[in-house]
Amino acid sequence: MILPNPVPITGREEPVDRTVPEAALSEFYRAFNNRDLELMRQNWLTTEEATMDNPLGGIKRGWDEVKGVYERIFSAPGKVEVEFFEYRLHVDEATFLAVGRERGMLTSDGVRIDLRIRTSRWFRKVDGRWRQLHHHGSIDEPELLARYQAAVA
């Protein structure tokens, strides 16, 4: 039995070889937690193949639509920070799938919302480095989902 990785990925990890799946995940969380749209662009496959299905944006197709979700999150008055934990990686030569959970918080005007999100991220190797192709996130708790959506709207 293969257990989930017990070490969370926060984006604060030491820089490592970008050909390693964990480095691509760390780069994503560094971009997200620091509201760095340029680093986010470098992490994603910036073509029409990129797709996202998450609680804030619904289904988005193509980098321009995916980027729009991050622009909305990054420009919102509150700050969202998350880390990836209890994850497993499924890796082959050309792709890897990361399946796990995110935990974190949104803080805005003195209000704190603790986040719990089921997450999967699919990456493809392009020119020797991993680029994110797809993200899916789900919040199972309807009240938490509504509070999160309202706070970032």
Strand order of the largest sheet: 2-1-6-5-4-3
Low-confidence stretches: none
Overall structural class, as computed from helix and strand content, comes to alpha+beta
Classified by CATH, the class is Alpha Beta
C-alpha end-to-end distance: 42 Å
Helical fraction equals 25-40%
CATH architecture: Roll
**What is CATH's topology name?**
Nuclear Transport Factor 2, Chain: A
Question: What is the subunit arrangement here?
Answer: single chain
Q: What is the mean pLDDT? A: 92
Description:
The protein has 153 residues and is of the alpha+beta class. It contains 4 helices and 6 strands, in the order ααββαββββα. It has helices at 21-33, 37-43, 63-75, 142-152, and strands spanning 51-54, 58-61, 79-91, 95-108, 111-126, 129-138. The protein has a 6-stranded mixed β-sheet. Strand 5 and strand 6 (129-138) form a beta hairpin. It is globular.
Structure at a glance:
Helices cover 29% and strands 40% of the residues. The chain contains four helices and six strands; from the N terminus they run ααββαββββα. It has helices at 21-33, 37-43, 63-75, 142-152; strands at residues 51-54, 58-61, 79-91, 95-108, 111-126, 129-138.
